[in-house]
């Protein structure tokens, strides 16, 4: 009887240790929130053209303004009237893809019949994939575009741009999470001819939960450099983003 009891203890002890090790491993793998590097990947995808980010929206807004002759004294749309269109931006490349559907609206504000500000919104839903992350999300933008006069070579965008959805990292620990990425846009300068972003800044916040409910929150700033790059700073760490 004593031998049997001793045998049982010898077997049970390794099993208990192994069980604890498995629980710890699962907790580390599944309950971790997004890392700062994950947050930087999410912000990059929120901004770049190849994931239908803000840089693409800025290009689209500038193209719409040009098509409607907003940058002239004889615009093709009526002052104070809201216009709404549906659209389906999509792209398939070797490393990047996106497919979205939604609506955008624009309302031209005028003073004495002269265009002063274009109010521009976009609300879309869809998916994107980049080398570092993939997402199923929605995006919402509310922009105020000024500096419309023909004598000005650039337009200026202020407003907000948000993305809300589910992401899966394709690198490092390959974590998954639900997130909200919010940009507050400050004096974004866009060349009217090339649609290139020439300058401006954005305040960014990234919040959400990991696959097992662990929360995360990061804050930073984005500076648009005028050379098709932007500089992201989160907690003192600098990341360079290629917009195209």
Task: Note down, in words, how this protein is organized.
The structure is a single chain. By secondary structure, the chain is an alpha+beta fold. The protein contains 3 helices and 11 strands; from the N terminus they run αααβββββββββββ. The protein has helices at residues 2-30, 36-47, 54-67, and strands at residues 82-87, 90-92, 97-111, 114-129, 133-146, 154-169, 176-191, 197-210, 215-224, 229-234, 237-242. Strands 1, 2, 3, 4, 5, 6, 7, 8, 9, 10 and 11 form an 11-stranded antiparallel sheet that branches. Residues 1-30 have low confidence and may be disordered.
Overall number of strands: 11
User: What is the typical, i.e. mean, pLDDT?
Assistant: 88
Note the run of SSEs as H and E. HHHEEEEEEEEEEE
- Helix percentage range: 10-25%
- pLDDT < 50 stretches: 1-30
Cα separation of the termini: 75 Å
Outline, from the CA principal axes?
elongated
Calculate Rg over CA atoms: 24 Å
Number of DSSP helices? 3
Q: Give the helix/strand class.
A: alpha+beta
Reported for the largest beta sheet, the result is:
11 strands, antiparallel
Strand content: over 45%
């Amino acid at each position: 009887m004593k031998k049997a009891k001793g045998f049982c203890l010898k077997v049970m002890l390794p099993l208990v240790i192994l069980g604890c090790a498995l629980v710890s491993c699962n907790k580390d793998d599944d309950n971790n929130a997004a890392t700062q590097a994950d947050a930087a990947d999410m912000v990059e995808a929120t901004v770049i053209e190849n994931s239908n980010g803000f840089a693409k929206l800025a290009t689209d807004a500038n193209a719409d303004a040009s098509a409607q002759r907003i940058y002239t004294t004889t615009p093709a749309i009526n002052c104070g009237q809201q216009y709404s269109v549906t659209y389906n931006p999509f792209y398939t490349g070797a490393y990047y893809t996106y497919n979205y559907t939604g609506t955008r609206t624009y309302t031209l504000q005028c003073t004495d019949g002269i265009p002063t500000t274009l109010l521009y919104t976009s609300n879309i839903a869809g998916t994107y994939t980049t080398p570092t992350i993939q997402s199923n999300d929605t995006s919402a933008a509310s922009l105020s575009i000024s500096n419309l006069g023909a004598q000005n070579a650039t337009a200026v965008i202020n407003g907000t741009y948000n993305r809300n959805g589910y992401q899966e990292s394709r690198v490092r620990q390959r974590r998954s999470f639900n997130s909200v990425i919010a940009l507050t846009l400050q004096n974004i300068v866009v060349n009217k001819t090339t649609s290139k972003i020439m300058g401006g800044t954005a305040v960014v916040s990234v919040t959400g939960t990991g696959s097992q409910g662990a929360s995360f929150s990061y804050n930073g700033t984005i500076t648009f450099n005028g050379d098709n790059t932007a500089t992201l700073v989160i907690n003192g760490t600098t990341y360079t983003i290629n917009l195209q």
